[in-house]
Specification:
Distance between the termini: 61 Å
Number of helices: 12
Helix content: 25-40%
Order of helices and strands: EHEHEEEHHHHHHEEHEEEEEEEHHH
Bound molecules: flavin-adenine dinucleotide
CATH topology of the largest domain: Uridine Diphospho-n-acetylenolpyruvylglucosamine Reductase, domain 3
Shape: globular
Structural class: alpha+beta
Largest sheet: 5 strands, antiparallel
Oligomer: single chain
Number of strands: 14
Strand order of the largest sheet: 4-5-10-6-7
CATH architecture of the largest domain: 2-Layer Sandwich
CATH class of the largest domain: Alpha Beta
Strand content: 15-25%
Mean pLDDT: 96
Length: 295
Amino acid sequence: MLARPGLPDFEYIKAETFQDVFDWMKEKGDDLKLLMGGTDLFIQMRDRGEGPGFLLDVKGLPGMQEISFDRKNGLKVGAAATLNSLSSHPNLLTYYSILCQAADTVGNYQLRNLATLGGNICNASPSADMSPAALVYDGIVVVESPRGERELSLDQFWVGPGKTALEKDEFLKRIHFPTPPDKAAGSYYKLGRSKMGDLAIVGVAVLAFPDPNQPAGVQFRIGINSTAPTAYRVPAVEEFLAQSPTTDEILYKAAEMAMDISAPIEDQRATAIYQKKMVRNLVYKGLKEVREILK
Ligand SMILES: Cc1cc2nc3c(=O)[nH]c(=O)nc-3n(C[C@H](O)[C@H](O)[C@H](O)COP(=O)(O)OP(=O)(O)OC[C@H]3O[C@@H](n4cnc5c(N)ncnc54)[C@H](O)[C@@H]3O)c2cc1C
């Protein structure tokens, strides 16, 4: 027997319209999976040695690869927009730089020509690199079904490792990011086992922007992956930072708070205690970096 058997057999179908998707999903039920870049799905099918009988390619549906931005409405990213199309987009580089930074850490360049933002979000991996960035920009997922569109925040969407709040007849259509506050600065730090496109042991996105209404004169948002069943924000730490002068001591205390909140599990990539300490270190590094940019 081969150590790595090939893909199980499946039938490929290309959806042309939303109605096609509704019809196929209804007809095939659990024997059908939606396909975008396939960079998560094919690996899972290969490793399990079994898969759905049908893969429905939804990349070509209207609007699925579109990226649009205006200052009033913010950014709309079709679920099938590739990570390379995000990281080279001028509006994203200007207004949503953490999405670009995070995208550039995923796998390698060739992979990012296939891998999509929607696939990264729908796969709901706790270590997904796009999650912390999507969280600090208050991403909203827009899902489609025969009943029309509905919107969910990311913390409503991710319900556990590999699990989303999608109903059986729903699929992800686009992700909406409101316009970030003026003069926002951001960073994404990822720790992997190697620099050659490894999954995150810890990833931390930090966004900061001036806010004269806060005692600190600034607000921070922090998104963290790989250290809980889903990626998450740390509102208690963000509130603490807004109330306090942004000295090194305060930033370090905030990073320790984030470490205490994190709840990693031991796995083949790192021990839990190491991950917790890396949460502290990367949060501190990210906070200091954005504080300097805002000065
Ligand atoms: C070598 C390698 C390295 C990688 N490195 C990283 C890394 O460093 N960081 C990282 O975060 N990820 C990494 N990944 C994982 C993967 O590349 C990303 O998660 C990618 O963004 C997934 O997008 P995709 O379009 O390929 O998704 P797909 O594989 O097409 O789909 C992912 C899941 O979403 C479902 N789905 C697809 N479309 C929809 C839809 N419209 N609505 C609802 N559900 C849908 C699929 O059925 C599947 O369950 C790596 C993968 C490989 C193979």
